[in-house]
Amino acid sequence: MKRNRHIRVVVTACIAGALAMTSAACGKSSTSAGSDGGKELTYWSMYKEGEPAQVALKASIGAFTKQTGIKVHVQWQGRDVLTKLQPTLNRKPAADLFDRNLAPVKSLMVPAGTASDLTDVLSTQIPGENKTIGDVLPDSYRSLGEVNKKLVVLPYNVVATGFWYNAAKFPTLAASPPKTWDDLQKLLDTQKAAGHAPLALDADIPDYNAYWYTSMVVSQLGVNSFHKAAGDKTGATWDQPGYLKAAQQIQKLASGGYFVSGYKASKFPAIQQKWANNKADFVIMGSWLPGEVKTYAAAGFKYASFPIPGNGTTASPVPSTAYGWVIPTKAAHRTAAEKLIAFLYGKAQMQSFADSTSTISARSDTTPSDAVAGAVASMKTNGTYQTDDAVNQDYADWWTKVFEPLDDKLITGNLTATAFIAKLKSQSVDYWKHAL
Q1: pLDDT in tens for each of the 436 residues of the chain?
Q2: What dotted CATH number matches 40-158+322-380?
Q3: Which of left, alpha, beta for 45 (phi over 0: left; psi -120 to 50: alpha)?
Q4: Is 237 helix (H, G, I), strand (E, B) or coil?
């Protein structure tokens, strides 16, 4: 999935409404009546027709209507679903339910109060099961959909970012992945000396470039370290040595010929295709990757991943993003929307979605595909944090105007590490001076 650039728009404030819910003794029942009657709803999805996720969701929605009699008016809007929906949120939302990741919801809806807090929905019983949604949603995944302890995105799918490779080429790597940056550098040096291209990157995608620096900073300095520097209006945090060290590591890769030929001028997915055909060894990417490249990957390609190496003292948590359901505060058919969420959270439905898409289910008792099993294990062992240290969510304008242009130059070898930090500091100070 080509990761979309984040949406930057100014949102207006609105008054959040609340709808009363009834509850059952064993948790809120998914079949409880509501003021909206619960007979129909409108669902806008981020998927387009023909995508594996769309096919799986369409089948599940059909099964829901057959079982409950509730009509679902579904529209497959694509990744700009929230951009299309946003103008209606302050009045009567055009959709009662939609799916998206946290970043655009946090940027567009949370400040305006148009995203419902779905924490209460966790107590909804899953139809046909003696479990609630909260029983099968791990805390580490739930937190990826929260803003200030309010659950505005109820996760159904989790993306883990890490180093991906072909396990058929590296059969022993899963048992002993690089633990530190020095370990990784030795592995890359070995591959380079053998005439291989160690790394793949479609450098025309700024968000893909950003994975490198943001994850290196967090792996060395800890969660919230990049976020702290980004929001420091004095710029002083950038003077701490760990930020320069991370940039120096990237400079070495860019200037040392570690990336596959053509990456600087690539047009996505050209370099990703090279990786999938064994012309490059490793790529930092989200766990959607196996499902995305399977149609053109080399025969016998065995997908595997390992987490971003840590600092040698502690294991590095996994950059993660949750995709899930959102209910606008003024949704006309909230009860029906909650019923659909509970149905889709059924084990059979969640397993089917994971199997069809080769992605990571947010439901803890589903079985991951072999392609993403390593990523799931890494999240359980190392923990998770918001991809890009949540800077793309909380400082979206700074991210686009200051960080990404400089980061693009760093990773393509057009800016030294020292110059990168100096410019990042000075431009950040200037940005915050005028942003206040």
Answers
A1: 554 433 333 333 332 333 333 333 333 444 333 345 679 999 999 999 999 999 999 999 999 999 999 999 999 999 999 999 999 999 999 999 999 999 999 999 999 999 999 999 999 999 999 999 999 999 999 999 999 999 999 999 999 999 999 999 999 999 999 999 999 999 999 999 999 999 999 999 999 999 999 999 999 999 999 999 999 999 999 999 999 999 999 999 999 999 999 999 999 999 999 999 999 999 999 999 999 999 999 999 999 999 999 988 888 899 999 999 999 999 999 999 999 999 999 999 999 999 999 999 999 999 999 999 999 999 999 999 999 999 999 999 999 999 999 999 999 999 999 999 999 999 999 999 999 6
A2: 3.40.190.10
A3: beta
A4: helix
Query: Nearest-CA neighbor of 337 among 81, 105, 67, 71?
Result: 71
CA distance 311 to 377: 20
Q: Residue 248, exposed/middle/buried by CB under 10 A (0-12, 13-18, 19+)?
A: middle
Q: Which CATH superfamily is domain 159-319+389-435 in?
A: Periplasmic binding protein-like II (3.40.190.10)
How far CA 425 is from CA of 210, 217, 394, 403, in Å, comes to: 17, 15, 18, 10
Of the CA atoms within 13 Å of residue 232, those in its CB half-sphere come to 16
- Rounded to whole angstroms, the Cα distance separating 303 from 309 reads 19
Question: What is the token pair recorded at 347?
Answer: 């084990």
Longest dimension (CA), the chain: 68
Q: Can you tell me the distance from the alpha carbon of 169 to that of 297, in angstroms, rounded to the nearest whole number?
A: 14
In the numeric block, which tokens belong to residue 259?
A: 């990336």
**Helix 181-193 and helix 241-255, axial crossing angle in degrees, nearest 10:** 10
- Pair of tokens at residue 86: 């946003």
CA distance 240 to 242: 6
For the chain, residues classed under CATH 3.40.190.10 are: 40-158+322-380, 159-319+389-435
Strand ranges (E), 32-169: 40-45, 71-76, 97-101, 146-147, 150-151, 154-166
Cβ proximity of 85 and 94 under 8 Å:
yes
